[in-house]
Structure formats: C-alpha cells, structure tokens
Amino acid sequence: MSTLNHYQQAIGDPLVHWTPRALPARIVIEGRYCRLEPLNPEHHAADLFASYSVAPDDRGWTYLSIGPFANVSEYSAYLEGAAASADPLHYAVIDLKSGIAVGTVALMRIDRVNGVVEVGFVVFSPLLQRSPLSTEAQYLLMKYVFDELGYRRYEWKCDSLNTPSRQAAARLGFTFEGLFRQAVVYKQRTRDTAWFSIIDSEWPAISSAFEKWLAVENMDEQGVQRYALSEIRSS
C-alpha cells in the first residue's frame, strides 16, 4: 500500500501510532500438546540429546549451523551458551504427555524498533517431527509474537537447498519472498538463503486456520487430523 506526499511521490502508509515493541521474554507458553519454556541446560540437555539420538543418522543437522554433537557433554556445553543468549532467545519444546524436552526453537534477529523477528534454530527431534506438537510449537511462538508483543513481521529463513524447511514454511502459511544469493558461509560451504514471512495483516486468517487444525474436532479416532492445514487455510 502507498499514499502520495505533497510532491506526488508514492510513499508508504503512515504509522502515526507505531511505537517500538517489547523484547521477547523468557516465559513459559502453554499449549494443548506442548509447552515452550526457556532453554535450561540442567533441565533439558539430557532429554534433548536422547530425543535427537532417536534419529538413525545425523542428516537432521545438515542444514543447521550447529551440530551434530558427539555426546551429551558436548551438547550440554553448547546449550550453556545458547541458554545465556538473549538473541537468539531459545526455548525448549516439552511434550505434555511425556514431560520431556523433544526439540528447540528460537526467536532471533529481534528488531523491536521495526517490529520484526525471525524464527530460527528449529531443531525438532524425530519425537516431535510430523506431529501436532511441531505445528503447535510454531503456532504458540507466532501467537506470542503477534498477539502479545504486537510485532508486524515474522520471518523464516533457510538454506535454499533445504527442501523440507521450505515445504514447512509454505505449510505453516509463510509467503516466499525471494532468494539472497551467497548470503551465508557455514560449515565451510556457501548458502543461498530463501526468505519467507508472515505479516500482521495476514496473521488473523493464519491464526484461525491453526486453531481449527489443532481443535479436537479435527482429529479422528487414530489421532490424525482430518483436514490438512493448507485445506483449512484455503477454505
């Protein structure tokens, strides 16, 4: 959207009441299937390492800037630094049925002045992947950012070659914005970065779709969702 100034130049719509947003906090966010809580090495390291160890190999770490980790001590040392960080701000994902930590997610590149934040360090174990917990964890963090903090833009970025991540972004309702060529060097290789976003004007419809997908009514006798998230959003 744009308006014209007194020179008849197109400019962005005014935000006369805009003020910088609050920083995300180290809070607990409760859901139906999972809970997000501030990352704590003492409480979460053993559970997380065990959850990641369920995977048959290390391919889950390929597109991450961290890992894989040889043992729980090495992983705990990494968590000490991650837990102390304010940006990225890391959360553990707790399975409410088992009570154990099964993954992590973070808010990062936090720009409170412009109301922009990125979700990153999404490290979901096999115990979390392709389950209602993984979708709800993403939803809970988005809801916190948009509904409680009032941010305008929520970003998702990944290696352009990371097909599962790109598919996940599209499934969750992110819009692909483009490719930043040779944007990053990590693990001694180059990366073109794919950019995705959700903006505040899109959030009400996306939020409503999440709530319908996560509702008990959308679950059959086997605990599988009756309608896909994309189906609900398109309807």
Summarize the structure.
The chain is α+β, with helices and mostly antiparallel strands and 235 residues long.
Quote the CATH topology.
Aminopeptidase
Q: How many separate structural domains?
A: 1
CATH superfamily, by name, is Gcn5-related N-acetyltransferase (GNAT)
SSE order: EEEEHHEEEHEHEEHH
Tally of alpha and pi helices: 6
Kindly provide the radius of gyration, computed on alpha-carbon positions and rounded to a whole number of angstroms: 19 Å
Estimate what percentage of residues fall within beta strands.
Answer: 25-35%
| CATH architecture term | 3-Layer(aba) Sandwich
Averaged pLDDT: 96
| Count of extended strands | 10
Low-confidence stretches: none
Strand order of the largest sheet: 3-4-5-6-7-8-10-9
Measured as a percent range, the helix fraction is: 25-40%
* The top level CATH class name: Alpha Beta
The N- to C-terminal Cα distance equals: 25 Å
Q: Helix/strand/pairing class, anyone?
A: alpha+beta
* Main sheet overview: 8 strands, mixed
Can you tell me about this structure?
Strands 3-4-5-6-7-8-10-9 form an eight-stranded mixed sheet, with helices on both faces. Strands 1-2 form a two-stranded antiparallel sheet. It has one domain (23-234): Aminopeptidase (3-Layer(aba) Sandwich). The protein starts with a strand and ends with a helix. With 235 residues, it is of the alpha+beta class. It is globular and about 65 Å long. Helix 1 packs across helix 2 (72-84) and helix 3 (132-148) runs antiparallel to helix 5 (203-214). 30% of the residues lie in helices and 30% in strands. It has helices at 41-52, 72-84, 132-148, 163-172, 203-214, 229-234, and strands at 2-4, 10-12, 29-30, 34-38, 89-95, 101-111, 116-124, 153-159, 175-186, 189-199.
